[in-house]
Amino acid sequence: MSGSTPAPIDLGPLSFGCASIGNLYREIDDERAQLALEAAWDGGIRTFDTAPHYGLGLSERRLGSFLRQKPRDEFVVSTKVGRLLAPNPDFDGGRDLDHGFDVPDDQVRVYDPSLSGIRRSLEASLERMGLDHVDVLYLHDPDAYDLERGLAEGLPALATLRDEGLVREIGVGVNDADVAARAVREGDLDLVMIAGRYTLLEQPALAELFPACQERDVRVVDAAVFNSGLLATSSPNSEATYNYGAVPRDVLERAQTLAATCAEFGVELPAAALQFPLRNPLVATVVVGTSRPDAVRENVGHMSAAIPDELWTALEERGLIPADGRR
């Protein structure tokens, strides 16, 4: 990391992911979004992550409406760059459901990881949120468009914005652990956000990404720790989703074995899923998001639930997690 980088930002153990308040999969109203955010705040969460991609700016607008009522020095906010929003010349009243968001598709996403594109993206995000700065900026899913260009242009551009003092920390946010590892090696990053690749269920990030982070002094922001729903209940079943799709039989059986082992020690599976990543010192925070206020409160409770060391030992001895959750 840059020698001029200030002390690492304290993200807190639990962060709030704001895709759901951008109408991910289903439409919700402004009031429900605000109630979910209020539940997070009341539960002690002070780090909020959003992106222009989430609901074509709706998530940023709703988050900004909430955060503008709070003291600016009491929260951390991150957003993402790489996807600019532009008016949709072919808009005819449709919805953005092909991208997973139930919002009007009156805008389109335009990939632009250049320095000028990233500047414009940040400026547009600040305008939508009504804030004067964000604390963390991530390059969002460069592998979904043009990975080579994203890394070659986007990573240096982020470093420039950090050097200029426009953001405190920079990173990359992806779903692929190998892509994340490459970004860590080729960039000058503070953070890497990885979704679904370091969870109680599976840990492919340990192969290449975590060693790269250790070598480069990059912290991990761990998202999608429920593997998109499978670990969000203590009774995983075939109706759940796994990484946004159907659950393979062997994966379901593994999740059910994890749940049964947790139950032996009086622990809810979601509590173990939330707390497992933080056993690794590279993990700075766990990001979860939901538009349901009750679910937010449940996640806060699960994060503070007591988990005996004997459970982790049993999971290790049965080959369900790596020894110490680190290898």
What this model shows, in words?
This protein is an alpha/beta fold and 327 residues long. The chain is built from 10 helices and 10 strands. The strands form 2 sheets. The chain has an 8-stranded parallel barrel, surrounded by 5 helices. Strands 4-5 form a two-stranded antiparallel sheet. Helix 5 (177-186) links the parallel strand 7 (169-174) and strand 8 (191-195). The longest helix has 17 residues, at 147-163. The relative contact order is 0.13. The model has no long low-confidence stretch (mean pLDDT 96).
* Number of helical elements: 10
Order of the strands making up the biggest sheet: 1-2-3-6-7-8-9-10
Q: Structural class of the secondary structure composition?
A: alpha/beta
Supply Rg.
Answer: 19 Å
Number of strands: 10
Q: What's the quaternary structure here?
A: single chain
Mean pLDDT: 96
Distance between the termini: 24 Å
Query: What gross morphology would you assign?
Result: globular
Q: Specify the helix fraction band.
A: 25-40%
What sequence of helices (H) and strands (E) makes up the elements?
Answer: EHEHEEEHEHEHEHEHHEHH
Low-confidence stretches: none
For the report, how would you describe the main beta sheet? 8 strands, parallel, barrel
Which strand-content bin applies to the residues?
A: 15-25%
